[in-house]
Amino acid sequence: EVMYRVGLPFWKTAARLGVPVRLRVDVFFDEESRSYWAQSPHLDGLIVSGKDLNELHREAITAASELLALQLNYGPVRAETEMRIRDKAVFAA
């Protein structure tokens, strides 16, 4: 399936045409609260948290879809996150 990365030239046009977009999300683990939090360097306002990676992934997808729709002033946008766990040698897709 063709996907277009948020932040590349013409990504907004691609998203408005119905092309699913991919979004990088950096994941961090907070030792003190024993939970995860994430942010995206390509989508302003995307900061989410979760008690585990599954919850964090659901929150990231929900927030990304809503923020993309607001930023594009367009209906629902199909988004896929590319989650990268920082400070670890592990990556989640």
The helix count comes to 2
Fraction of residues in helices? 25-40%
General shape:
elongated
* Assembly classification: single chain
Q: Averaged pLDDT, please? A: 82
Give the amount of beta strand, in percent. 25-35%
Largest sheet: 5 strands, mixed
| Total beta-strand segments | 5
Helix and strand string, N-terminal first? EHEEEHE
| Class derived from helix and strand content | alpha/beta
Rg from Cα? 13 Å
Which helices and strands appear, and what pairs or packs with what?
Elements: E1 4-5, H1 11-16, E2 21-30, E3 35-39, E4 47-50, H2 53-72, E5 79-85
Parallel strand pairs: 1-2, 2-5
Antiparallel strand pairs: 2-3, 3-4
Fill in the keyword field for this structure.
93 residues, alpha/beta, five-stranded mixed beta sheet, 2 helices, elongated
Can you put this structure into words, describing what you see?
This protein is 28% helix and 30% strand. It has helices at residues 11-16, 53-72; strands spanning 4-5, 21-30, 35-39, 47-50, 79-85. Strands 1, 2, 3, 4 and 5 form a 5-stranded mixed beta sheet that branches. The model is unreliable at 88-93 (pLDDT under 50).
